[in-house]
Amino acid sequence: MRFIVSTVVGLVFVVVSIATTFFHYVEGWAWIDAYYFTVVTLSTVGYGDMTPKTDLGKIGATILIFVGLGVFALAVQQIGLYVSRQANDDN
Predict the structure, then answer these.
(1) Is 20 helix (H, G, I), strand (E, B) or coil?
(2) Gap between the Cα atoms of 45 and 82, Å rounded
(3) Is 54 helix (H, G, I), strand (E, B) or coil?
(4) What pTM value is reported for the model?
């Protein structure tokens, strides 16, 4: 079970890293802005204070939404399952 959790968390890290790098170069955003946009998009908060301006950036954002949200949801589900099982094992 720990392997699955660490794999999924690693996958989230990879998605965030790739998306951050993508937006840094495609949109010309600072690293922190690209990271911020990626996390806000993945978490579905979507403040709207930053939006991609280029066509490629818009396409990248839609791909991030479809792929990233699935990976992020899987990570939350697996971590919740792990914590639940740990709590049950302690009882």
Answers:
(1) helix
(2) 25
(3) coil
(4) 0.82
The rounded distance, in Å, linking the Cα atoms of 28 and 4 is: 35
Half-sphere exposure of 30 (CA within 13 A, CB side): 3
Quick: pLDDT tens for 20-74: 999 999 999 999 999 999 999 988 888 889 999 999 999 999 999 999 889 988 8
Per residue in 4-15, pLDDT tens?
Answer: 878 888 999 999
Lookup: tokens for 13: 């890290």
Structural domains of the chain in order of their starting residue, each with its CATH number: 2-90 (1.10.287.70)
CA distance 91 to 78: 20
Identify the DSSP state of 44: T
Cβ–Cβ < 8 Å for 86, 20: no
Amino acid at 67: V
